[in-house]
Amino acid sequence: MVIKQRIGIFLCVMGGVFWANAQEILTVQDAVKIALENNYQIKTAQNELKIDELGVSPGQAGILPRLDANLTDNNSIQNLSQLRNDGTLQERDNVKNSSLNYGVALEWTVFDGLRMFANFEQLKETKKLGEAELKQAILTTVGEVMITYYDLVQQQQQLLALDSTLIISNQRVELAQNRFTIGKASKLEVLNAQVDLNTDQTLMQRQQELYKNTKIQLNEQLARDLKIDFKVIPEIFVNQELVLDELEAKIASENPQLQAEKINKRISELELKQIKAARYPSLFVTSGYNIGSSKSELGFAVSSDSRGFNYGFGATLNLFDGFNQNRREKIGKVALENAEIAIAQQEQELTSLVNSTYQTYLTNISLIELEDKNESIAKENLDITVEKYRIGIIPTIEFRTAQLNYINAKVRHSNAKFQAKLSEIILKQLAGNLEL
Description:
The chain is an alpha+beta fold. The chain is built from ten helices and six strands. Belongs to the outer membrane factor (OMF) (TC 1.B.17) family.
């Protein structure tokens, strides 16, 4: 029975090694690259930016003239009765009349209180807003991908820890069985060892389930086949040189959320400028070339033809509109004030978030070193405990305690590195300089 267990464990370990080597090794850089190419949110933001870019044109702003072609063809069949001044009466049935007019017409607003130029600037700012929103979508997606990726690294480390404890638990069952066989241990010791082994196997299956589900989640974020299997890097490396003052300076200049609020303020200023433009007169010019032809079977003129240019100009000025102009300007000023408030609120929220996240970052960096020492101590303690248990000088409960202490120390060490990496990613994301 013992030989079969050893062979089974050996085959499982060797099979796991072969399976891992056969898998694709996905680096975090590769994951980010795939996300930038495939992610649906990024593609949507890119298309929204294209729409904003296409909207930036003088024609969209109303600066350019408008040229229209027109064609009108009217025909009629009528029964007519005409009494002329000389007393004669003319009556005709099915009289045909036709007229054909066609040409081109130009209309150009040459002055509207500078509203068209403010509109053009607003279109440019809208494009900048789209760029900021695209950057935010990229940073959000890349941050989510990196967090999920390093979560997988942490889970992989926990799987290795559970794998090592399974080996120890199997050894313990083997030792307990041998001791029971030669009469140095009770059946209770064998049963306790087997129960603990079953518990460790359950934890391993739960951890494997979580690991596989997280892989599916990462594949979803990369917008690729959810069944693609891969292997992540074995270790998490944390940048321990982030400086709070530098992060705050980066946030002020590069954070896309804050930049978006500043752009929204500029848009509100331009909208107010367009509203105020209604106080000035609007001047437009018109021109065109028309060709006309008409025919009538009854009347003084049987046919008529005309062609030629026409031109002119016009002006409009609102004198009174029920005080709506004043109301619109007041509303525009309130909207501008709200935009300024939004900037102040965003700055405060970002400052609060970066300071609290930085404190978490420092704490987790400190814990990495502490948990590294704890893991070494727990490993040494476990090695000593295993040897003592092997020669039968310590009870089962002490063996299990040392085993659990080692596993918990490895898990805490792994989690401290993951939490520190998580804080690092969030800080760089806030600063707008997350490595893409």
